Amino acid sequence: MLNRRDAFRGLALTMGMVSVGFAGPVAAALPPLAWTPAALNAEQARALDAAAELIVPKTDTPGAREAKVPQFVDRTIATYLDKTQGELLKSGLTQMDVDARAAHGKAFAELTSAQQTALLSRYDQEAAAARKAWKPRHFFSLLKEYVTIGYFTSEPGATLALRYEPVPGEYHGCIPLADVGKAWAL
Amino acid sequence: MMANLNGRSRQENTYDAIVVGSGISGGWAAKELTQKGLKTLVLERGPMVRHLEDYPTAMTDPWDTKYPQGKLPAAELKAQYPVQSRTGYTVTEYTKHFFVRDDENPYTEEERFDWIRSYQVGGRSLTWGRQSYRHSPMDFEANAREGIAIDWPIRYADLAPWYDYVERFIGVSGQNEGLAHLPDGQFQPPMEMNCVEKAFKSRVEGRFGERRITMGRAAHLTEPTEEQLSLGRSKCQHRNMCMRGCPFGGYFSSNSATLVAAERTGNLNLRPNSIVTSLIYDAKAGKASGVRILDSETMKEEEYYAEVIFLCASALNSTWILMNSTSSRFENGFGNGSDQLGRNVMDHHFRVGAKADVTEFADKYYSGRRPNGIYIPRFRNLGDAATKKDFLRGYGYQGGASRPGWDRDLAGEGFGADRKAAMSQPGPWTMSLGAFGEILPYEDNRVTLNHAAKDKFGLPTLSAKVTIRENEKAMRKDMQAAAVEMLEAAGFKNVQAADLGYAPGLGIHEMGTARMGRDPKTSVLNAHNQVHECTNVYVTDGAAMTSASCVNPSLTYMALTARAVDHAVQAKRKGDL
After folding, report:
1. How far apart are CA B201 and CA B266, in angstroms?
2. What local confidence, expressed as pLDDT, does residue A6 receive?
3. In chain B, fewer beta carbons within 10 Å around the N or the C end?
4. What CA–CA distance (Å, rounded) separates A155 from A62?
5. Complex ipTM
6. Which of B67, B367, B370, B372 to mutate against chain A (most A CBs within 10 Å)?
7. Which chain A residue shows the shortest CA-CA distance from B368?
8. What are the residue boundaries of the structural domains of chain B, listed by start?
9. What does the alpha-carbon distance between residue B522 and residue B503 come to, in Å, rounded to a whole number?
10. Cβ contact (<8 Å) for A183 and B424?
11. How many domains does chain A have?
């Protein structure tokens, strides 16, 4: 059972990380982030980097990380989303670390993939419940939306996970789905 | 005389003809006038848009957009495009340069009025919906038969050869159906219906004798003619990115077709950034001698002169020019002895219909992005008892079936490899029908000139007060019910009716503010689109329409324009102007 002091320590650590901006045990334990965030702090960016790959993982086609989806989401927060939505995503990413530390004593990005998946599953259920109850949107729902958009509009996502044909030439209205194999990107 | 405002001689600024506007009507006026040998000046208030060169987003891939899916941030829409964005589809990263900024182009909405505008060479011909239908004999006779407003001064037979002429040049793909209420035309091969649409057609036509399901008639080349190829146009490539400008010239626009043809005659002078502020009236001669412009770049005023002037600035802007052209002869607006100028604003009301899920054909799909859908011609009030309803006129449906892609449920449950795999497959088929209905001409649906509110050039602006009435509201109920009825008759599942609401203007088919008629006391234009009270001024855009029909209007503007130019050139030769 988490006592008051432990809880405070976790919080202090989080805050210290934010103010320092890098270093600390997280950075030491993981390879450096391959990109420089514009809207997120270093920890939010790490949490996003890990979560995006779990939302759209590498399979027989590239995953979110290879498609530079974390960068897309960061850029979307920096330039496109309104303040409320941006804050929802940022605070959600921070909450992921808070919850990870509370449960396992480590930042989200440092957890095992099974631990990460369990946490995201919890968020996914909360998001579905909020949606059903017409409650304010859960950050994970918004995160999934932009990770998904980022992925399927990326070059690897559009051209490998989907079928992309910029200049189809013809329209054929009734062909076997098997001949196409996947959904059209556009 | 006020000439020589910037030192040019009157002779230098004199042409055989002046065309105001370069959109779908102005482009046609330019082509016809120049091909008939008249030295023609085309004045366009917006900037130059050159075919191919000035379509900056035509080949942009999805991963090269600045914003997610090319959508603009809410703050930018609110600040710069609060009206233009009301459609939900017109103003995006891909297209915003083809629409006006509302913050720079003010007008007053006494009632909500969605005025969607494109100020550039080519106007809205670059961004139009491309659906191309003829008005029918019934459309030209309806006002007279029902005692609504005034009679059209022309009949279908007057315009039929001009429809032929225009369709052959622009290229319309479609299917002849032999219907009196949707006349056949000069069509290139129709695009193909998909599996679900074909099933819908056979099931609905089998059940309802009076209803026909046809392929949308769209101004896309499916079998280009020698003439079209010679202009540099080619077959539609089924990219469905038309509003960005088409690098293949696959759909008709002024930029890809009429202005190219006009340019080739050597008789065209196109002057962008030229806001025509008024017509110059020569009281002694009893005719217009030219136009005054404001150069939007240099802010200098200038005058241009011609024997014949075509106003093709779009319905409301041609009306604005007439209203702003006052003189001792025309104190209440140019040619406005009837007091009809600015009245009878019409549009098409829409955003009502139904959609359904289709559980069949799960193993079928399509390839290519068809920039077109199916069309269900009007089937109400066709003159017999069986089709008579409790409202006047009618409506047609545009619609289609498709399979949604990866973006069908972005916030839905799940994540990970299973969801990725599911979203990489098309979703189940859905089919939707959306109706477009006729709006009657009402005298008090009007725009007026507002001298109290000036734009950034110091020019007066328009004020609009337009509403739909009982007839349109009754029609909307039927538009929704009949859509449900047909989707159910086709055996589709989960049929859902919807009325998403409509505000005048949203159809982007403004019409009627300088209507044609037989009597100068009740109309602004005569049977040849000449201003009754000043016959060397022609108005051939949407302003001329005496009634709206329920079909998309651009084809009719083009036919009216070609016919009016033919009249003008003959009249000029005879010395009648």
Report:
1. 49
2. 40
3. N
4. 10
5. 0.94
6. B367
7. A171
8. 1-131+252-346+442-467+508-577
9. 27
10. yes
11. 1
